[in-house]
Amino acid sequence: MIPGRALSIALTLIGVIVVVLLPIAAIFTAMSGVTPVSFWAAISTPRDLAAFRLTFGASFTAALIDAVLGFLIAWVTVRYRFFGRDLINAAIDLPFALPPPVSGIALATLYSTGGWIGAITSKLGVPIAYTGAGVVVALAFVGIPFAVRTLQQAIEALPREFEEASAVLGAGGAATFARVVVPLLLPACLAGFAMSFARGLGEYGSVIFIAGNKPNVTEIVPLVIVSKLEQYDYVGATSLAITMLVVSFILLLAVNALRRRLIERQVAQ
Amino acid sequence: MTIQLSGVRKQFGASVVVDGVDLRIPSGKLVALLGPSGCGKTTLLRIIAGLERPDAGAVLTDGADVTATPVRSRNTGFVFQSYALFPHMTVFENIAYGLSVRRRPKDEIARRVDELLALIQLQPFAQRRPHQLSGGQRQRVSLARALASEPGVLLLDEPFAALDATVRRGLRRWLRRLHQVTQVTTVLVTHDIDEALDVADLVVVMNHGVIEQTGTPAEIRESTNPFVRAFLDPYALPILEAI
User: CA-based angle B2:A166:A192, to the nearest 5?
Assistant: First the structure.
């Protein structure tokens, strides 16, 4: 046990206040000139609403993709030994390390009509760059390390006996997967989803290169905030920022509560 | 169900864990695989279950070669040392699992699970989850789950190792009675010599991947085999580590 319970709690509080809460409080202090009416006016224009829809919708979709794809990548890299496994494992962290604009430009190049993937999809009538799908692609890219790392830990900690017990009891691979493996990894899946989702809500640098940023169509909320700031519309920018903050916080609280309930139902033996 | 092992060998990396084992387990008997840790007894049990494939040799049940039969098609009951109860399922769902993956009718499953809950005297606990049970209760649920689909063989891997001495003695006697009722061929892995001599019809003493001696508890007690003698004498146990 580390000594000094009171001291460590005090230091924790100071740390959280200085590093996390003060900057967030600063957003609220910028609210001084905002009235409920101007607040509502600033977040309810069609352009704002479209941006909210895109930001939350694309973040949700990307987090869903990351949770499923992350599950697969995590499972394969933890459970199987194959040539190139270490390479894949290292590559997973690249989206962490790349400066967002670099990711954004790379993705825009790859998915634009002249790019390797974009050429194929646009021929099939599904352009990706400069559409909402492009935003999802960028967000899935920056969020995937969170999902994979979270799930890898959970899979490493999952005792093999559960799968063996299921097999001895007569279950095939699909039944074992659906009835034992997935339920046991669902809390970790949700945690990975929540982290990827949160990352997506705040992502700016990589998205703006692939989104095209057409107002009402492919504009994300962070971009609207920046453009309002550039026009000295501090009330508008602050109102949007606070809305993002509150909604994101509520959504993350809800996901965490769901995850906690799942864990409490099964508590480690 | 009779189990026959012939020339079974298993190697992990450079270490030979089971080194050419021949063994016949008669139908309806309770057999203990006894030996110090690392002697290969658990691996041998896992080979019988089909959880490990032997590198050489064959496993026969009632004369049929099942060496290559996948574990899920063997209808074996297996009790893990850690119980391995599914934590997200209730006691009822755990016991029902083997029947439900075989798509038995719901009422048949409910009847069979109730029967087993009565057998392990845990009827009031049907809707509890494993983490709400004591170690001994979990062990009984694990046994009931293994017995649910009426397996031809029941395999137990150190089933009482994680329990305290009183509970262990109680469960040992209970297992003995259970075996008399079900008459299912049972193989029990243990490093506890008293447990083996107390509960088994036949004791198989293993060391370094080979069988030192097979015999009834009485024969094992009178053994002249130096390894078995050393294993029998509790004061020799510290020396045993050096063997």
Answer: 160
Model pLDDT for residues A17-66, shown as the tens digit of each residue: 999 889 888 888 877 778 888 889 888 899 999 999 999 999 999 999 99
ipTM: 0.90
- Asked if residue A67 lies in contact with residue A154, where contact means CB atoms within 8 angstroms, the answer is no
pLDDT at A268: 46
CB contact under 8 A, A268 and B131: yes
B11: contact with A, CB 8 A cutoff? no
The CATH number of whichever domain residue A142 belongs to comes to 1.10.3720.10
CATH number at residue B170: 3.40.50.300
Length of chain A: 269
Q: Long-range contacts of range B62-69, CB-CB < 8 Å, 24 or more positions apart?
A: B62/B1, B62/B2, B62/B27, B62/B152, B63/B2, B63/B4
**DSSP assignment, residue B235?**
G
**B58: enclosing H helix or E strand:** strand B56-61
The answer to whether A174 contacts chain B (CB < 8 Å) is: no
3 state SS for A142-156:
HHHHHHHHHHHHHHH
Retrieve residue B204's tokens: 């198989």
Give the integer Cα–Cα distance in Å for B135 and A54.
Answer: 52
Question: DSSP letters along A236-260, please?
Answer: HHHHHHHHHHHHHHHHHHHHHHHHH
Per-residue model confidence as pLDDT tens digits over B14-63 = 899 999 999 999 999 999 999 988 899 999 999 999 999 999 999 999 98
Lowest mean pLDDT, pick from A129-133, A190-194, B92-96: A129-133
Contact (Cβ atoms closer than 8 angstroms) between residue A235 and residue A129 = no
Tell me which residue in B83, B129, B138 faces A266 most closely, judged by beta carbons.
B129
| Substitution target from A158, A163, A169, A184 for chain B, most B beta carbons within 10 A | A169
Beta bridge partners of B58: B6
Range of the domain at B169: 1-14+28-38+49-74+152-243
DSSP secondary structure code for residue B146 in this structure: H
Q: Quick check: A267 and B131 CB within 8 A?
A: yes
Contact B33, B156 (CB under 8 A): no
Residue A25: inside a domain: no
Distances (CA, A) of A231 to A40, A204, A227, A234: 19, 18, 6, 8
CB of A265 less than 8 A from some CB of B = yes
Q: In chain A, how many domains are there?
A: 1
Query: Based on the domain organization, do B114 and B64 belong to the same domain?
Result: no
| Cα–Cα distance measured from residue B1 to residue B23, given in angstroms and rounded to the nearest whole number | 14
For A205, the 3-state DSSP assignment is coil
